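Input/output pair, single chain:
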Amino acid sequence: MKITIDNLDGLGAVDYSGAVCAKEPGITALTVQRVLNVPSRCTAEILLGIEGLAIPSRHARVVVTTEDGTEIFTGYIATEPVRIYAGEATTGTAYRARVTAVSDEWLLDKLGSGAGERSPVLLPLNAHGLLTTLTERVQVGGSAGVTVASGGSTAAMGAFATKVAGPWSRNAGDAASAAYAGYCAMGGVVSLIPAASVTHVFSDADGTLNVAELTTAAVRELANDVTVSGDEEPAAYITECFEGDGTTTVFELSGLAYRDYGASTRTLLRDSFNEAAIDASQWSVSDPGSHISLTSAGLTMSGGTGVDGQTTVTALDAIEMGGSIVAQLGSVELAAASVGMLAGFYEGTSVLANCFAGFRVRQTTSSDSGVPTGVTGIVPVVDGTEVGTVYAPAAGHFYTLRVRLHCVEMQRVMQRYYSMADGVIESFGSASGVSAPMDVVFELVDEGAASSTPATVLYDSAAAIGAVGAITGTPATCAFVVANSTQLIGSIGSASVTRPGTIWVVSTLPSGSLQTRLIGISGQGLDCEATYGTSTGTSGRVTFFAGRIPVGGERISVMYRGSQRSVARLEDAASVAAEAVGGAPGTCRWLGKVLQPVARSSVDCESAAEAILAFATSRTAAVAGEYSCANPASDIWPGDVLAITSAGVTSSLLVRSVTVEDGNCLPEVVTYKVKFANDWGTEWADGMGLRLSEAIAADAILPLAAASSAGEVLANLQQLMVTSLSDTALGVDAGMAPPAGGGFEVRRVDGQFGVGMDADLVLRSPVRNFSIPRAAQVERFYVRMYDTSTPPLYSRFSSAVFVNWPVS
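Output:
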């Protein structure tokens, strides 16, 4: 092999091949080491003192090629070469330099993780898009000159949990593995190749091979009954009902409210627009007419092209439309003749028809009741249509604009898992988003008014439609566009998108009308503050501010989700039957935890369990071993497949690592030492599409029996609603029609649903709207849908109503 080194001294790439020491005891030959989805390394020992050859320097560029010009390695010397005493020569003491180089992604690793400070969870469309995002983002502060090759793996993915503290290569390796692909960095280009897309065929008849060197071992017994746990997940859909009396300000919740995803992800975006340039790590700017700039007023807009969607400032990362989301623009000032959108959530391109929610800025007309014509107005938009009240901002005033979104589902994007059995890659998990209703509230605050002045609500879906979560068919993800300037003239002082939690409060006034109670902190013109409780036993609570206290007879409905550990158990019935021979038990159980890709719910755990069963029931999936050959017909990379036929049997073996060693002779002899392992033959930390642990979560409630397939449940009652509450009865609308012959089962204890378990049964209703008799002031009712299966199928989670209301 040929090695050139550019010491960045102006001499360019210099051929060091003649100075490379041959392999001897204590001497390392020119070697390239490749491991699946980690940086490659090149090591060599070079004799020093040869005329014209300088001592290789740190940061020097290294390129290794074969005799026919095939590039085997490109990278950089990451550390100072180690000088090794080689003996005495006629010219004096001789030394060797041991050189270690790291492949091209070393440049990206020096710049950071590629995760972004506020983006630990990314929602990619596919694997190539995710790798491109990581690569572009890490080079925002300083380019490394590395690009991502077009094409490659476009495998669909779910949510990807980035590691902010890890290097780029760690995140890129995890992303590639999650998509069942392998990345390589060569010649300044990162390529993402689907695993098993390249197959190297070997057979006993191939004279270049020594089949006796092929060693395989089945390192793990098969498994056909799999239990896996994942992250904490939201469980029961809880509505707690309280009665206002005009004086009570604090309402204690019955338990912990699920708070989505953790503190690191509660602030999705935050920018004060006070830097010299727009933060390219958060925003993508489209500005063909040069109408967007940063000034002392913040993000400043001086017009647009007149075309909707051409002049935009868009968040780099998609927003998962789950849980509660608050988008806020601060210190917004608008001049006359402004047209465009502010704080818009878009499903698709940034045009009005695709705007799920946002503030439209336009010139008012005669149809805008109560607003003079020809002045700038702000009006809410939902699903591309104007709703609510048109507001005319006063000239010279600064405003805070907020869009509040609430969805009963925290997870709108399901996880996708990949595995390989017998050389075929399969995917598991839904590619479509989770369908769920949402509440939407638009509010505005004049920043010059007193802090106690209530926010002006321009639109409240609960008040307008008369139902909670009434907007259906909502998008699973959206792009957030802080400004879409058709012809906006003005400025925005700050922008943020936060995920404060899952608590949502709606009041039913004595008149019967609904209104959403605005949650936040005192001094922002809001109604109340919500706390979530702690794992040490402190419950959550809702505290109303002075002037916002619920009046006598007002029903306060606090909605949130309970919490539990996600878990799933599945079996392969065919494998169980096949293994039950000679009186031996057919079931072989395995329990563990899903580490990567993250399983955020029991549905994800079911998908992961399906992927595990796909390979854990295959004999070839437990194969691991090593293979050596010289001068193969084509270069071998981790992620390729060896199709080796021995004794008439062909095995497909996934390459995990490759060591390429120079034989230092003519004609050229290059030895490849290949380690392979299929999915069930790996160590737990080295899985390809799945990274697992044999330590299942300690707080997981393990299913007593395995399901034969995923999704053996009925729909959850996402829109169950309390329609009336008196001292004798609780009126309920289940939110959907029951299945034919089925109905809705009401119990006082969760998790004990089923035929023949009547100790805590309250009633079964065959109709959507029903009444639950009351017996005490404080009561809990859990509702699930059931069908006529044997045994009946039920909803996965309960919809619960907790009542703290007087009885007669």
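The chain is about 5% helix and 40% strand. The mean pLDDT is 89.
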